[in-house]
Design a protein that fits this description.
The complex is a heterodimer of chains A (75) and B (271).
Chain A (H helix, E strand, L loop, with lengths): L2 E5 L7 H10 L7 E7 L2 H12 L3 E7 L5 E7 L1
Parallel strand pairs in A: 1-2
Antiparallel strand pairs in A: 2-4, 3-4
Chain B lengths: L4 H6 L1 H4 L5 H9 L2 E5 L5 H11 L3 E5 L24 H12 L4 E5 L8 H5 L4 E4 L4 H14 L3 E7 L2 E7 L6 H4 L19 H20 L8 E6 L4 E6 L25 H5 L5
Helix pairs in contact in B: 4-5, 4-9
Classes of the chains: A alpha+beta (75), B alpha/beta (271).
Amino acid sequence: MATYNLDVTKEHCPMTFVKTKIELNKLQKGDVLNVRVTEGEPLENIPKSAVEQGFTVLSVEPTEVQGIYSIRIEK
Amino acid sequence: MNFTEDQVNRYSRHILLQDVGVEGQERISSGKVLVVGAGGLGSPVAFYLAAAGVGTIGLIDGDVVDLSNLQRQIIHFTADVGKPKVISAKEKINQLNPDVEVVTYQALLTAENAQEVIKDYDFVVDGTDNFPVKFLINDACVITGKPFSHGGILRFEGQTLTYLPGAPCYRCLFHAPPPPNAVPTCSQAGVLGAIAGMLGTIQAAEALKYLTGVGELLTGKLLSFNAKTMTFRAINTKRSEHCPVCGKNPTVTKLIDYEQAVCDISDRRKT
């Protein structure tokens, strides 16, 4: 069970989720993807979209940087 | 297949679709589709398949662009008048999406070349304007087990079906071409330009559904519409045991070049 990291803080909707989806598709069962996102649209929508596509959102937490959050998604 | 940053961006709206995703786009990008006829139907078909990133698009058409084509054949521009249609179409596809390899055949599809031309493709789209070649495509695809989309338009109406090996074919429904004198002549047979787009985009969607395996094809169905009332109707079809090509005792065992209506021959460029 591995953990991977992805930063989509420079992307805009819907590329934030496109990039996330591509990385999610590479996961094996039990693997976790840590996605760094900006607050606002990606913070609201990426967890929802991940759940819709059958993944589990483990946590959504602020990072050390103001306005940037980390979403942990498990396959 | 590893998509580049630009490709991820270009195909992002496919990748977002749950049913398509990266895998579906990979199947599209490695798919090979032959479009027979680069005219009214072939234009939107080729355009959307190119936009979708279909890996190889084959175009076969022996005509050159005529001014009267431009009312519906949207892949050709005014400056293309006089240019072979397959070249004109290839130029637009290359501009739209350089990922796509375009193979051109500046020829008519005939009983002699049909099997050789279609054999390298995953899916064939009938975008022709005449019955002899529609039957030829059906027979060639049935005999070689090749999936294809039939499409036809006239005036305000269109019809389409998708053939897969084992499913009802075009001949199960329409046994043979109508006699040449029963086909409307050029002066009788206008067509509303936009219905070429209506039907061609349905055919393009069927080709993309076939490549990705998404959804249910128009197999075992005949979809027809009338743009005057804007009504669509899908009827279920069945294989005919008397079908001349896929029935119990087929009489069509090799390909046939049927006679064209005189008007079709003398005035091909206007059709």
